[in-house]
Amino acid sequence: MSTQLDASTTTSTGTGATTTAAPAPAGTEPTGWLTVCPVERLQPGRGVAALVGDTQVALFRLADGSVYALGNIDPFTGAAVVSRGIVGDRGGEPTVASPLYKQVFALRDGRCLAGADEGDAVSLPAFVVRVMGDALQVGLR
Q1: How far apart are CA 9 and CA 123, in angstroms?
Q2: Can you give the pTM of this predicted structure?
Q3: Quick check: 69 and 126 in contact, CB under 8 A?
């Protein structure tokens, strides 16, 4: 069973205006952090969906305690289902398979690991995520 978490937030710009926070892409330095939930809410090997600003994020925790964040929208169907995918690995690479057409995506960077005819240039956005104490946090840009 997949859980939907609402982690929507607004951040102050310092001028009195507020902007909707968006998750920071993997490989970038976040400008802040949003606590989404206690890390214990994520069952190892299962995904949950969270709304970070206007972006649906699929969050995963593996049995070894590592955490990953990808876009929750399946690029092949447009459905918000990635968090309901099957977590596994391919040759030691942690993965999630879309529950609809079963395309497999790398959890580290979101690239599609399907055959050349199915998804060579297709990927999911990957986001900065960490565990701080007992909290799961998504980086913000």
Answers
A1: 26
A2: 0.84
A3: yes
Helix (H) or strand (E) run with residue 119 in it: helix 116-119
Closest-CA residue to 59 (of 97, 3, 98) = 3
Predicted confidence (pLDDT) per residue in 107-133, tens digit: 999 999 975 455 568 999 999 999 999
3-state class of 118 per DSSP?
A: helix
Sorted by sequence, the CB contacts under 8 Å of residue 74 that are 6+ apart come out as: 80, 81, 82, 98, 100, 101, 103
What SS3 string covers 52-117?
ECCEEEEEEECCCCCEEEEECECCCCCCECHHHCEEEEECCEEEEECCCCCCEEECCCCEECCCHH
Taking CA atoms, 120 is separated from 43, 85, 95, 103, in Å, by: 31, 20, 16, 11
Structure tokens at 19: 């902007």
> 81 is written with which tokens?
């289902």
